[in-house]
Design goal:
By secondary structure, this protein is α/β, with parallel strands linked by helices. It is 25% helix and 23% strand. The strands form three sheets. It has a six-stranded parallel β-sheet, sandwiched between helices. A three-stranded antiparallel β-sheet has the order 10-9-11. Strands 3-4 form a two-stranded antiparallel ribbon. A hairpin with a 5-residue loop joins strand 3 and strand 4. The longest helix has 14 residues. It starts with a strand and ends with a helix.
Length: 189
């Protein structure tokens, strides 16, 4: 039975690396995959999934107007659909993907952040946490060695940012995965 999967983590846990490995595994077995990433994520160019390990691949892009139900209504479906930066999906898109997984027998695996730099959920992540049939927390660590579950946003001087728009693409230069203690107190350990 196909499912909607949500693999979530703080920054730098290897989400994109895992997605690229899953795509490779399907294709090595001569099965087709459709890969998507958020149009808003242009760190490495629009329509690219790039791992911190240096592996990169062109993908399709989605934005708030993407209608997954319409895209897959009349076409031959891939063996699997993989979505990076899934926190940027809308609630309606998550519903479409859930329905698609269960009515077409196509597994859909979404990778993304659970929360933003203020500790607030992304709308796409909230919907995925509600509807996904399988949830997997991918792990990474804070500089103190504890499990990192939160994300800090930094300014150009390395100072923590606590206000602003939910979306500001920036990668390692702008964000740090931290443990809850560091998130709330600024201290590790």
């Amino acid at each position: 039975m196909a499912k909607l999967y949500f693999r979530f983590a703080a920054m730098n846990a290897g989400k994109s690396t895992s997605l690229l490995q899953v795509a490779y595994n399907y294709e090595e077995r001569e099965q087709s995959v459709d890969l998507y990433t958020a149009q808003v994520d242009d760190r490495y160019g629009v329509g690219r999934v790039t791992s911190r390990l240096g592996v990169t691949r062109e993908t399709k892009v989605f934005n708030a107007a993407t209608d997954f139900a319409a895209i897959y209504a009349d076409q031959v479906r891939p063996s699997c659909i993989l979505i990076d930066e899934a926190q940027f999906l809308t609630e309606e898109q998550v519903v479409q993907l859930h329905l698609l997984a269960h009515t077409t027998k196509t597994p859909i695996i979404c990778y993304g952040l659970r929360s933003d730099f203020q500790g607030k959920p992304f709308p796409g992540s909230m919907a995925l946490l509600t509807l996904a049939d399988d949830l997997e927390e991918m792990k990474t660590i804070c500089r103190c060695g504890r499990k990192a579950t939160m994300n800090l946003r930094m300014d150009e001087h390395g100072q923590r940012v606590t206000e602003g728009a939910q979306v500001a693409i920036g990668g390692n230069a702008r964000y740090e995965a931290v443990c809850p203690r560091r998130f709330y107190t600024g201290e590790c350990g």
